[in-house]
Design a protein that fits this description.
two-stranded antiparallel ribbon; seven-stranded mixed sheet; D-Maltodextrin-Binding Protein, domain 2; Arc Repressor Mutant, subunit A
Amino acid sequence: MALSSDGIALFLAVVDHGSFSGAARALRRVPSAVSMGIANIEAELGYPLFDRSRREAVPTPRALALVPHARSIASRLRLLQVHAQELGQDLESALTVAVTAGTDDRRLLDAVAEVGDRHPLLRVNLVSAPHDEVRAMLHGGRADLALVTCSERMDREEALATVAGETFVAVASAVADTYGLPTGLRRLEDLSASRQIVVAGPGDRISERRLLVSDARWHVDTVEAAIGLVERGAGWANLPLSAVRPRVAAGTLRVLEFDNLENGVPMSMQLIWLRRNPLRRAAAELIELMRRPPTGT
């Protein structure tokens, strides 16, 4: 085939260096070998690539039309070669990170983008789900890492790195009456008879018991759905402050106030993985990036 990987490299070398002799020096070949290689490509294509009537090798219009595509293919071939070497150096072919719904994932996205810059052909999958489903994905082999809020439950099979913090606050609608919410709300326990919107799977297996107050609960699988229901007065919810702050500022949600305690449950954000699965290269790099102090601290 005329434009093999070697042929593309030869063609671009002549274009970039402007002569067969310049391309020969760059490729560490003799000029006659470069000239013969281009001649063989031209013979297979059936048309000239360079005007040889001048001192320099001037690309023909057809050659110029091929240059952008040739550069693109050459670039991807270089990436492929690097990726093939990295796979032999313990780089995984894909990295799946499960993220607890509603957590502030900006630092994770920054870290994933940097890992992607280092390994352009690595396939990355980011999946958002309720806390317990995220852990189930990890233990079921459907995720390599999980970004979760710190749980009271310790699991000996898990290793972890604390990477950030989050505060959960109790919020209700600022524009509608909230179902079952006492008019004279003064204490946290006054919420026990009202409906709580919880970000969780459909079952009652909820590990973050600190966030549960009401016996009457609706479960949704995204923070966005929880916010929407709370805004409509369907119930109140304990949600990440980072997620509700814009709605509080917009006047559609309000942070509840209590006389007996400050509204807010601080929690650590952790990246967890299974001890039985040794960390591979991209996962280890992602953890290392996430453990760095945020810029400006």
